[in-house]
Write a structure and sequence with these properties.
The structure is a homodimer. Chain A has helices spanning about 15-20, 25-35, 40-45, 50-65, 85-90, 90-105, 155-160, and strands at about 65-75, 80-85, 110-115, 140-145, 165. The first copy, chain A, is of the alpha+beta class and about 180 residues long. Chain A has a three-stranded antiparallel β-sheet, with helices on one face. In chain A, strands 1-2 form a two-stranded antiparallel ribbon. In chain A, strand 1 and strand 2 (about 80-85) form a beta hairpin. The interface between A and B is large, with 57 and 57 residues. Chain A binds a DNA duplex (30 and 30 nucleotides) through helix 3 and helix 4.
Chain lengths: ~180, ~180
DNA sequence: AGTTGTCAGTTCGTTCAATGAACCTGTGGA
DNA sequence: TCCACAGGTTCATTGAACGAACTGACAACT
């Protein structure tokens, strides 16, 4: 739970949403899932999250129906975590948070932005393309690195995200 | 901080936004501010939040430029907390969270909804009126109680919210 | 056959934040 | 004079996050 038992008494869908995705790290895991990260180890190294916390979050997101856990190899058994429809529905939350952070948190330079793949123009907080004005479906959103982005060369996930990347497509992470 | 020192290392505006508004209780305080709650005591009783935590959150929201603290009486000195422009800019975040909670968290009945004051129709996750299709400015959003709302008669803030209420307008809370 | 490496965890001691109850301060009103 | 109120502060207890170390199943190399 995000805020203790009291959350259950909140008469508000915002509070209920926060019960599911309001805990520390949870939305960053969801963000990485939008970026195409699927594996425990990639979440771990990209986020720098404690292992026990990552496992707990992945389990609770799976239980909440936000992530789907599926076997990608049998020997040894290995699972990957993919956004469900319910998880993909969190896109407006992530987008509005991201644009707010860019516009209103002091000292946040242009690290990455969300652009309309068709137009190349940025999205506004409501998900509309600032060029064509349409509400862009999340499949047509491109994550592009900004000029202030630190490449962080030691991290394979960060390296993979140096190229523009379409959301919800699998990220090609180098394995060593 | 929402997630410890590590957050500073996140190369992402989502993470930066969560540093400001990602902590426990913070977004619920912002939500209540949108509802027109302005005073310490009203936040306290409506949220059921520990006093020390409320003070800490109000201070950090003030410091982040989300809330403005202003004196409303001199003797004894009393301050109220009002959303700044930066705080009002959080509207898309709150809206998308609320609609996601309503649509995707199991067992959340219709407690309250956001409707377009002109049309009376609900808003979609991107802030568009489901009747007229326009993106509705937050000043034209009405918070209306749903049929599953528990009146919670002991709480003056809850009682005040039993009537439809326009966002960002001061809530008329009975004082004892 | 033994060693090394990878992936996905679990365990555990320490640190840090949230919780909730009690207390404090300045003031106005009965 | 005594009480209530608004807006806090203090403090002991609980619980969660942190991070380092360890585990287990397997593959690939030597």
């Amino acid at each position: 739970m995000a805020l203790g038992k009291d959350y259950a008494h909140q008469h508000c869908s915002v509070a209920r949403a926060l019960e599911v995705i309001g805990e520390r790290w949870t939305l960053l895991i969801v963000r990485d899932a939008f970026y195409g990260v699927t594996r425990y180890n990639d979440f771990l190294t990209h986020l720098g999250i404690p292992r026990a916390v990552l496992v707990a979050r992945l389990r609770s997101l799976e239980e909440a129906g936000v992530l789907d856990r599926r076997r990608y190899q049998e020997s040894p058994p290995r699972d990957e975590y993919v956004l469900t429809e319910r998880g993909v529905a969190l896109w407006p939350v992530l987008l509005s948070l991201g644009t707010w952070g860019t516009a209103h948190v002091d000292g946040v330079p242009t690290l990455r932005s969300f652009v309309h793949a068709d137009c190349g123009a940025k999205l506004d907080p409501h998900g509309q393309c600032t060029a064509c004005g349409r509400v862009v479906p999340v499949e047509d959103v491109l994550l592009v690195p900004g000029r202030d982005l630190d490449p962080e060369p030691g991290n394979p996930v960060s390296r993979a995200l140096l190229k523009p990347h379409r959301l919800l497509t699998r990220l090609d992470v180098e394995r060593g």
